[in-house]
From TrEMBL:
Record flagged with keyword Signal: yes
Residue ranges annotated for the Oxidoreductase molybdopterin-binding domain, each copy included: 63-135
Keyword Hydrolase: no
Pfam families assigned: Oxidored_molyb (PF00174)
Keywords linked to the UniProt accession: Signal
Species in which this protein is naturally found: Billgrantia ethanolica
Protein name: Molybdopterin-dependent oxidoreductase
Signal sequence, renumbered to the chain: 1-17
Amino acid sequence: MAVTALLLSSTMLPVQAAPLPPPEGEVLLRVMGNIEHPNVDGELQLDLDQLMTLSPHVIETATPWTEGVGRFEGPLFRAVLEAAGAEGERVRVASLNEYEIEIPFSDLHDYDVILAVMRDGEPIAVRDLGPVLVLYPFDEHPELLNETIRHRSVWHVGTVDVQ
């Protein structure tokens, strides 16, 4: 477990000295579990502005669920975990409709997986897979177009539980 945490932390931003302040806007994501930097009731709660300030990243890709190539923006998943002070081997991602899947930290180390919150310059609406979407860089890495990764590409993400 310590080796995995070390591998992940070596690819992330420096550990924050203090937790982020509580969100001022609507909470889009709650990070819980084995974290050291909560900001509200033992969780790291993040709004759109906070998410977009954590290592913003752009992926231009087609997905199995959308038409054509889209321009998706959001923080690197590993940067969100770093902001939370996460330690573990995997995360359990849960959607607003209660779909859950585990994602190993190795995915977040090996690929620039983002928590997409914007598509083509607009916030992603719930009816369009939002407000948060786990997105792998499919066009950069065609090997990711497989059943396992499709299941890990969670839409309507509400919580991330670090384990």
